[in-house]
């Protein structure tokens, strides 16, 4: 699906107890279990309309094949990922990637999410992508602020799109041009 010949550079980090070295790279088959664990820890009713629970490794790999995420490899431990896919199969839509990002709770607020987004911007630009888009629940102000700090802007809002925890919740559409 993507040009895998482009090798991602190693991104170095050293903030608030963060590992000395973070390698951001395309996901591989060996990462599946760690990525499934991150999904089970991060995606809950406050972050997504339906918590993500994988029935098997095979199910996960079918939906999230290797190479469709960038992972933050911190001394051999996967600390987070940013997933990406084309919004449709139309050739005229190949300049856009829909993204989703999750950072393991043990590594949150250490700059890993921002590094993943910055690495994806570089990688995606080299693939000819011009726009990143995402969806975020209006009840998740921390995520909204994080996306804004990474250069994302609201481009639309699906009013009362979900009924969660006995309230109607807007689904915010955000984008970033690269």
Rg, nearest Å: 16 Å
How many beta-strand segments?
8
Question: How many discrete domains?
Answer: 1
**Can you tell me the CATH superfamily?**
Gcn5-related N-acetyltransferase (GNAT)
Instruction: Enumerate the strands of the largest sheet in spatial order, edge to edge or round the barrel.
Output: 1-2-3-4-5-6-8-7
CATH topology: Aminopeptidase
CATH architecture, by name, is 3-Layer(aba) Sandwich
Please describe the biggest sheet, giving its number of strands, its sense, and whether it closes into a barrel: 8 strands, mixed
Query: Portion of residues in helices?
Result: 10-25%
Give the helices and strands as they follow along the chain. EEHHEEEHEHEE
- Principal-axes shape call: globular
Pfam family, one: Acetyltransf_1
Keywords: Acyltransferase, Transferase
Domain N-acetyltransferase: 22-178
Protein name: N-acetyltransferase
């Amino acid at each position: 699906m993507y040009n895998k010949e482009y090798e991602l550079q190693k991104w170095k980090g050293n903030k608030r107890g963060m590992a000395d070295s973070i390698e951001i790279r395309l996901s591989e088959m060996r990462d599946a279990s760690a990525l499934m664990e991150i999904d089970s820890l991060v995606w809950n009713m406050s972050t997504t309309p339906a918590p993500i629970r994988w029935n098997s490794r095979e199910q996960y790999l079918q939906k999230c094949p290797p190479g469709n995420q960038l992972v933050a490899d911190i001394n051999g431990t996967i600390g987070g990922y940013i997933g990406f896919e084309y919004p449709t199969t139309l050739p005229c839509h190949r300049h856009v990637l829909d993204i989703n990002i999750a950072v393991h709770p043990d590594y949150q607020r250490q700059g890993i999410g921002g590094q993943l987004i910055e690495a994806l911007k570089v990688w995606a630009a080299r693939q000819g992508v011009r726009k990143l888009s995402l969806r975020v629940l209006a009840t998740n102000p921390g995520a909204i602020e994080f996306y804004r700090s990474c250069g994302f802007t609201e481009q639309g809002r699906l009013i009362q799109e979900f009924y969660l925890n006995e309230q109607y919740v807007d689904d915010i559409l955000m984008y970033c041009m690269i």
